[in-house]
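Researcher: Good morning. I'm working through a list of sequences from a screen, and I'd like to move beyond sequence-only analysis. For each chain I'm collecting a predicted structure so we can compare shapes side by side. This is the next one on the list. No need for commentary yet; just the structure.
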Amino acid sequence: MELGFRELFLWCDAPYQRHGLDLSLHLARSPITEDKTNQQHFIRHVRRKLEAVGDKSRAVAASMRSIGVHLTGSRSEGIGPFGFSSHYQFDNFAERRATYFLENISSETGLPVWIENANFYSHSAKEIIQTWQSVTRLCDHTGAGLIVDLSHIYIEASNAGISPVLVLGMVPWHHAREIHISGVILGANGVRHDGHSQPVSPDVWALLDICLESDLLQGQVIINIEHTDPAWMNQVAEYYADFNQLQLKVAASATQSRVSPDLDPGAYAKGFLRKILMRQMTYRLKPGHTLEQVALHFEPWLEDAMLKRGLRLTFTQEESFPEEQDKICLALEDFNQYIEQVI
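Model: Good morning. Structure tokens for this chain:
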């Protein structure tokens, strides 16, 4: 379960505190791309807060498993001054600062750190690509895990005018530790926004279906429905309906796959090779021979060349180096010689 600082301390004081429930401190606004002084002050602040949690409840402190951090810009820029997560704009300077922050907050707290894609309002596909490339480098260089917010992906891609499915291909899934899904709000001007008070969007469910059916989630990946708004107190049925739907999807994904069982690259390659050779042999037929007669000997020749003689086929002499000449044969020339021997 993800908790902010306030929720974490309330959890410590709750009489129904559950032991053995894994907890994550989630920080939507941090100086992750700000100067080192701000970062050091903030990291010390986080460490003191976690120490205070330990003083209040050893059970809660023992349940802390990670720190989640939004990948954002400066808190004094964009929508940051309004109290929201500001936009992460990639440049080498911002990425170096984020690297420093992630390494140090993990070192100071002793907890793994997971970063979350938090952008909503990128202006172009190029900007989205640059951000995901930066996310990949940050995870590679710092060892940070990744929280993939599918709602954020859908919102950002749709606002930039590209397919959200394309963005799934930019995600470094081997770093994924958690998935977020939530509602989406469509503004009057057609711009999409995050909607934690709304049911999970059908478009976001569709992205999750792709992730599940395509086996993009590797290992133990948590799927988190972000129904965090107090409005859910008055929408109990709708609240549980989304969780029930998620359970059904996860259960169904265990027996479903988008990988086609009919793919046979070897058969396709063999058929294409036959087509190429028959087309070329049209111009090499001897009087009295037909293409149908030649075609009957394709399979025996292929078995002789590849299985009996152990050769690799090639189409041009130039693509092979001298030291491997005894391991290859020119497909058309070898096939033609074979035909001359058997017909």
